[in-house]
Design a protein that fits this description.
By secondary structure, this protein is of the alpha/beta class. The chain has helices at 58-61, 70-82, 95-107, 121-138, 159-163, 188-198, 224-235, 287-294, 311-326, 329-345, 370-375, 379-389, 411-432; strands at 37-41, 44-47, 52-55, 114-118, 146-150, 180-183, 203-208, 238-242, 266-269, 281-285, 353-358, 364-368, 392-393, 395-397, 400-403. It has 13 helices and 15 strands. The structure holds pyridoxal-5'-phosphate.
């Protein structure tokens, strides 16, 4: 998500134009010809001119099972043929939504949770934070309003997500949501100090990504996640894990949090739940959070979007989860995280590279040398555009590039990412002389 406006749309593309289409996070006045993708298969993509690319970023961190899987297309088609969807407000329901909620509840790392379905990651953050405030209110603590998040955290672009962002995409929007606070991404002590400063009885929730994704692949320090969940519990603050990127195998587990043995009060998910075949997200709420709403009649969570529980999106998610299980991709990501990271870490010997972050799951960030970026601020853009010319797509960061390939990636394809990124770095280095 850290995109310099002038670099947001590619320079290596077809002659096709954007027309009326307004690209997200893009400098529409300064853009160059966009690349039009027309086909995907496995880790591979082809543009309209026939150029082939390795999808090193799983599009926007979501293509976990890879592109073009016929099983998901078939599930979508079958569902459309019987009932595209019907809403699930009040006393209506549909079978794929029920099955998906039960499947997710059975995979979740907390006992007897409930699942609220949404249309995507930003929707899920709105849902989780509103539910956190309401939960406290119905239990007699309406003063608990503050939502604490981390510097470098990214939680989408809806009203609450924008307000709790730890990145600089808030300017000019004015204050959207009151009662938010930010703490450093790596200090549990700082979280506790902030809760104390605000007053324990004023804080509703702490929102955190298990590994910060768009903010630069920041792996938490040893003990950090265990400590923040313990601190939240001690102060009655709900711990909300934003597993929108980290879930569905990206970190080698279903919801990203399991490897630390933590049990958040809520988990927000999206992206990998359908691998992007259709938009869907949701919130898994612990039995305790759900209890005031399920325990007795007369109370409701007055929240929900038209497409909550969209039957065809849920059918896509179910087929995607079947594939993750059938191909054992959740475990595969854990099994290959070390060789994956070792391959990319070999780039650290390049003079343009400062460090390669990652090592937890299939996500990494190539961080370029600070002095070189100071000398040429467009260096990161030069790098990921060169990588693209060498056939590998990465996710742009203002100081480098993130790599998070589909979980099906094989050894040769991982080698190709490392060698193409190396060649791209050499090319950028040569052009500086
Ligand atoms: N949370 C995290 C951690 C994300 O990375 C994103 C999107 O990249 C979101 C929330 C927002 O998801 P969406 O773009 O589906 O609204």
């Amino acid at each position: 998500m850290t995109v310099r406006p002038s670099e947001a749309v590619g320079s290596h593309g077809s002659e096709s134009t954007t027309g009326a289409l307004w690209h997200p996070f893009s400098d529409m006045g300064g853009r160059s010809a966009p690349i039009e993708m027309v086909r995907g298969e496995g880790v591979w993509l082809w543009d309209v001119d026939g150029n082939r690319y390795l999808d090193g970023s799983s599009s926007l961190w979501y293509a976990n099972v890879g592109h073009g899987r016929p099983e998901i297309a078939q599930a979508i088609s079958d569902q459309l043929a019987s009932l595209e969807t019907f809403h699930i407000f009040g006393d209506f329901t549909n079978r794929p939504a029920v099955e998906l909620a039960d499947r997710l509840a059975s995979l979740a790392p907390m006992p007897d949770p409930k699942v609220f379905l949404t249309s995507g990651g930003g929707d899920s953050i709105e849902t989780a934070v509103k539910l956190a405030r309401l939960y406290h209110a119905v239990r007699g603590e309406p003063s608990r309003q503050f939502v604490i998040s981390r510097v470098q955290g990214y939680h989408g672009t809806h009203g609450i997500g924008t307000s709790i962002l730890g990145m600089p995409f808030t300017e000019g929007f004015g204050e959207l949501v009151h009662h938010t606070a930010r703490v450093p991404w790596d200090s549990a002590e700082a979280l506790e100090a902030e809760i104390t400063r605000l007053g324990s009885d004023q804080v509703a929730a702490f929102v955190f990504e298990p590994v910060v994704g768009s903010g630069g692949v920041l792996v938490p320090p040893e003990g950090y996640l265990e400590d923040v969940v313990r601190i939240c519990r001690a102060h009655g603050v709900l711990a909300i894990a934003d597993a929108v990127i980290c879930g569905f195998g990206r970190l080698g587990s279903w919801f990203g949090v399991e490897r630390w043995g933590i049990e958040p009060d809520m988990i927000a998910f999206a992206k990998g739940v359908t691998s992007g075949y259709l938009p869907l997200g949701g919130v898994i709420a612990s039995a305790e959070v759900a209890e005031p709403f399920f325990g007795e009649p007369g109370r409701m969570f007055a929240h929900g979007a038209t497409y909550s529980g969209h039957a065809t999106c849920c059918a896509a998610a179910l087929a995607n989860i079947d594939l993750l299980k059938q191909d054992d991709l959740v475990h595969r990501a854990a099994a290959i995280e070390r060789p994956f990271h070792e391959r990319l870490s070999s780039l650290e010997s390049h003079p343009l590279v400062d460090t390669v972050r990652g090592g937890t799951g299939l996500m990494a960030a190539i961080v370029l040398d600070g002095d070189a970026i100071e000398e040429r601020p467009a260096l990161a853009g030069d790098f990921w555009r060169a990588a693209r010319r060498h056939g590998v797509l990465t996710r742009s960061l203002s100081y480098g590039a993130a790599v998070a390939p589909p979980l099906i990636i094989d050894d040769a394809e991982q080698d190709m990412i490392a060698s193409c990124l190396g060649a791209a770095l050499d090319e950028v280095q040569r052009s500086r002389r």
